[in-house]
Amino acid sequence: MSRPSAWSYVVLLLFVGAVGYASLTDQPALLGGAALLLGVVSWPLGGMLRWLAPVAYALGFLVSLTLPGHEASLLELLGVLLMLGGLGFITLRDQGSARELAWQRNTIAALRAGSERLAEARDADAIIRAGINILDKLQVAPNMAFVAYRQGTPMILAARGAFEGFLERPIHPSDSDSRSVQADHWVAEEVLALLKKPQRRKYHVAAVYGRATTHLGVLILTRNEDVEFDEDETSVIASFARLLGAQLGQWNAIRELRDANDLTLRSLGAALERRDDDTGGHTTRVVRSSERLASRLGWAEDQVKALRWGAYLHDLGKLAIPDAVLHKRGPLDPQERRIIQTHTTVGYDMLQDLHFLPAETLDLVRYHHERWDGTGYPAGLRGQNIPDTARLFTIIDVYDALTNARPYKPAWTRDRALNEIRMQAGRQFDPQYVDAFLRMMAEQDDAHLVL
């Protein structure tokens, strides 16, 4: 609502003056008309000024009674009472409308800001925190908690007000009765019992459901005052609970799909290495080391995931390589080397129909044999033109290949392999990534010494 202008107060004073003039000159018709217009002007100003018209009219009438020779008839008194009743009724109605309008505006603003925060949330905990923040802005209750289940045990995962002291606290039945772990009624009772009675004079409980009526948690709100939650408030809370449930349900579905994708790709990687690695374990080792190095470099979660998926699939194209070439003991001739080098592009082509794979994953599969100096394959990319995931992974992949036996070579010692990686910085590998890798391996050695 815009702030009233100075002219509003000038007009207000003019009508107050008109009421005073009418009362002093004993003109009841002018007094009533001026009071009505005063009400029209004072109501938009809000606050106690809304009561100015009935108060001014009553005072004006009392002043007119003190004038010499004025005697109020019964009909005049009845008219005054009706006028005061009408002005009071209009003022009360307008105050109720103003409160309702303010509540609606506050609700819309809170839901708009909250929906943006919900959309930006990257995990379930962030969604829950954003949701509680929406309720806090709605100002429906000073104390609120969101209770959800972790490994079958209800816990307060987000809170405001008096509940904040119990954040992340598990909730257990206070007696030995055998009760369903996910029964909202006893969970709500136990959570409410955490607060002192003056902090929970009135309360409201709303269950949160996701897709297919999946129970996701419960919202508990309490008030310090003995004021019931009205219909509008409970309706807004119910709408918010549905919004929160939809967001959490969507996140859970995405997480389940991502986990299924991850498990599928990991299984595929494990199956692939059985064809190329007699001892097994190559995929597990390179995935674990790649994730550690990426975390050390401060990569975002999505980029680490793309790296991990690429590590699972990096040798997918070897399915198209003949066994005579793939398992040849001894050096490859030029023709065989050209055949083995096709596994990068073949693997890349095989993954084109998996649309959930990010570009960084496909880049790793295609370019993990490129070299920093531009002499690698398949595209001869140089330096920073090689995608990040491929530049990082090639260090891990080569180190693992050096330190484990292959059909064409015995395993190298750890020190010899690390020295080779160091020597290839700026030639085969990104120098900055090599430096980070060597520091990571040195810290790992230190940790082993401590143990």
From TrEMBL:
SUPFAM superfamilies: HD-domain/PDEase-like
GO MF term set: hydrolase activity
Keyword list, A-Z: Hydrolase, Membrane, Transmembrane, Transmembrane helix
Transmembrane stretches, start-end: 6-24, 73-92
Annotated ranges, domain HD: 279-402
Gene3D superfamilies: Hypothetical protein af1432
Main EC class the enzyme belongs to: hydrolase
Domain HD-GYP span(s) in chain numbering: 257-451
E.C. designation(s): 3.1.4.-
Keyword Magnesium among record annotations: no
Protein name: HD-GYP domain-containing protein
